[in-house]
């Protein structure tokens, strides 16, 4: 309940701040986070980050969504992701969101997005290697090795292809 009240209060202050300082850039100040509970400080900072990213900053909005999603505010993160999915976006935006889902342990949400990305981007050796590594880490060695084969068919000289392959066999998640 306290989180909802803090989020509502932060939203009210945020909207009020825009009304007062229309045209002014929002920036964090020490008052944004000092002497506040961690979740309250994070919420205030995330509201500023969202305003800073604007309407067209999908990478930046995904970054804010990631912090919400992984920081225990999944609904707020999902809302940002849904907004991106429902608007004009790049394949790479979906890929980044799938990474967040994978990082959160939501493989069932990440998997179809990764698969769709590979279908749309059949020459992205690094993506094939990373997605294959994630399959291996989920225990699907057959699919992983098929995707590894595709990755090295595309590029067998790139360490960013080879490293996630090696790491997955040792239980190391791909570097993002």
UniProtKB/TrEMBL annotation:
Positions annotated as TPR repeat: 91-124, 125-158
The keyword Transmembrane helix belongs to this UniProt entry's keyword annotation: no
Record flagged with keyword Transmembrane: no
InterPro entries: TPR-like_helical_dom_sf (IPR011990), TPR_rpt (IPR019734)
PROSITE patterns: TPR (PS50005)
Pfam family, one: TPR_6
Protein keywords: TPR repeat
Name assigned to this protein: Tetratricopeptide repeat protein
Origin species: Luteimonas galliterrae
């Amino acid at each position: 309940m306290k989180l909802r009240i803090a989020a509502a209060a932060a939203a009210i202050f945020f909207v009020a701040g825009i009304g007062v300082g229309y045209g002014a850039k929002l920036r964090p100040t020490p008052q944004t986070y000092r002497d506040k509970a961690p979740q309250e400080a994070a919420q205030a900072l995330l509201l500023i980050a969202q305003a800073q990213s604007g309407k067209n900053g999908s990478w930046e909005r995904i970054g804010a969504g990631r912090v919400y999603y992984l920081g225990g505010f999944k609904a707020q993160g999902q809302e940002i992701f849904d907004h991106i999915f429902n608007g004009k976006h790049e394949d790479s935006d979906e890929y980044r969101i799938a990474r967040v889902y994978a990082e959160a342990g939501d493989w069932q949400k990440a998997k179809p997005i990764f698969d769709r990305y590979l279908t749309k981007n059949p020459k992205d050796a690094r993506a094939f290697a990373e997605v294959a590594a994630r399959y291996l880490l989920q225990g699907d060695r057959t699919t992983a090795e098929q995707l590894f084969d595709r990755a090295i068919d595309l590029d067998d000289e790139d360490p960013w292809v080879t490293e996630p392959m090696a790491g997955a066999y040792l239980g190391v998640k791909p570097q993002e």
